[in-house]
Amino acid sequence: MSLIETARKVRENAYAPYSHFKVGAAVKAASGAVYGGCNVENVAYPEGTCAEAGAIAAMIAAGDTRITEVAVIADCPKPVSPCGGCRQKIAEFADGDVVVTLATTSGVIQTTTVAALLPDGFDQDHMRDA
Ligand code: THU
Predict the structure, then answer these.
(1) Of all protein residues, whose CA lies closest to atom 5 belonging to ligand 1?
(2) pLDDT in tens, 16-61
(3) In sequence order, what are the beta bridge partners of 110?
(4) What is the SS3 assignment for 17?
(5) Is the C-beta atom of 102 inside 6 A of ligand 1?
(6) Centroid of ligand 1 to alpha carbon of 128 (angstroms)
(7) What is the C-alpha separation between 129 and 72, in angstroms, rounded?
(8) Which three-class secondary structure state does DSSP give residue 54?
(9) Is 52 a catalytic residue?
(10) Atom nearest to 48 CA in ligand 1
(11) Summary mean pLDDT of the chain
(12) Is 86 in the pocket of ligand 1 (CB under 6 A)?
């Protein structure tokens, strides 16, 4: 199954009763294992979590630490794009040239990279001598 198909399947489990915007994400790790996540909303709105965060949490919980590929899918007019916080979360575990596939459920697909999604992001180099 392609990474986007995994994301599509996980999206079905999204808990989004407030936004009604279901998102699925999948990350492939350096081990070859694939981890999925979906958004999980909460009546206290800021407590909701994004699909990408769920996939990354599953990866870390399983013992993988490096992402080699990312896919995100939602039912929207143009390919869904990770929020700023998720771009930072992805960048923590992926090199800049890692490919990110963004898709709509109707089949529109766009590919980009981690570096293109988060140019000049805050990283560990900014922490030296702090
Ligand atoms: N959402 C994600 O899970 N990932 C994205 O890339 C964009 C937004 C979620 C957060 C919230 O549950 C809903 O979509 C509407 O913003």
Answers:
(1) 82
(2) 999 999 999 999 999 999 999 999 999 999 999 999 999 999 999 9
(3) 102
(4) coil
(5) no
(6) 33
(7) 36
(8) helix
(9) yes
(10) 12
(11) 97
(12) yes
Q: Is 16 in the pocket of ligand 1 (CB under 6 A)?
A: yes
- What radius of gyration, in Å, describes the C-alpha atoms of the chain? 14
101, two tokens: 């596939």
* pLDDT higher than 80, residue 124: yes
Would you state the structure tokens that stand for residue 13, as one six-digit string?
């489990």
CA-CA distance, 32 to 14, in Å (whole number)? 24
Tell how far the Cα of 39 is from the centroid of ligand 1, in angstroms.
6
Considering the candidates 12, 52, 69, 92, report the single residue annotated as catalytic: 52
What the block records as the tokens of 27 is 């990350």
CA distances from 114 to 60, 68, 130 (A): 18, 10, 26
Residue owning tokens 């981890």: 35
